[in-house]
Write a structure and sequence with these properties.
The chain is 24% helix and 33% strand. It has 185 residues and is α+β, with helices and mostly antiparallel strands. The chain has one domain: Roll (Pnp Oxidase, Chain A), CATH 2.30.110.10. Strands 1, 2, 3, 4, 5, 6, 7 and 8 form an 8-stranded antiparallel sheet that branches. Strand 4 and strand 5 form a beta hairpin. The longest helix has 21 residues. The radius of gyration is 16 Å and the shape is globular.
């Protein structure tokens, strides 16, 4: 049955960073707003920073829901599922903040991620975790992992840094509910 944990210990940390995919969910304050759930490929893009602190590399997307919601209210949950091996689901609930590529903290955090210099990297999301819980995962299917798609890197490299910033201005300025997203200098 489900358990809660006081901290992310070494064993749990190792399991989290080994998962090839995780999911991020956020929601606006407005009850009529759209809840967001985004899958994230984990190509060394998730890091445990401490017993109750994690971060992940945020790649360019067609939407900006996570960033908009975090800037509005900070609430976030990151969920990991075991698709191979023993069944398990782990959820990390917390308060997140967005560290954009042009902010001073970005370079300090970027060293944690091998792909942080990629053209498509939009930000790093840092989460102060206030609840760590697992559950059985019995309903999660067993699936084989074939590999990560190269499409994001190929697309962003073809576009180049200037065109990516233009894309952010056009596609990532507001959420689908009109909440402020990326504001570029």
């Amino acid at each position: 049955m489900g358990r809660t944990f006081e901290v992310i210990d070494e064993s749990l940390s190792g399991w989290l960073v080994a998962q090839p995919v995780f999911f991020v969910s956020t929601a606006p304050l407005d009850a009529d707003g759209s809840v967001n759930c985004s899958p994230k490929g984990n190509r060394d893009e998730f890091a445990v920073l401490g017993e109750r602190r994690v971060a992940y590399l945020d790649q360019t997307g067609s939407g900006v829901e996570t960033i908009a919601h975090l800037q509005e209210n900070g609430r976030i949950v990151i969920m990991f599922c075991a698709f191979a091996g023993p069944p398990r689901i782990v959820r990390l609930h917390g308060m997140g903040r967005v560290v954009l590529t042009d902010e001073p903290d970005f370079n300090d955090l970027a060293g944690l991620f091998s792909g942080a210099a990629g053209v498509g990297v939009r930000s790093i999301i840092v989460v102060e975790v206030n609840r760590i819980a697992d559950s059985c995962g019995y309903g999660v299917p067993i699936m084989s992992f074939e590999g990560h798609r190269p499409t994001m890197d190929q697309w962003s490299t073809r576009k180049g840094p200037e065109a990516i910033r233009t894309y952010w201005t056009e596609k990532n300025a507001t959420s689908i509910d009109g909440i402020d997203g990326l504001t570029l200098n």
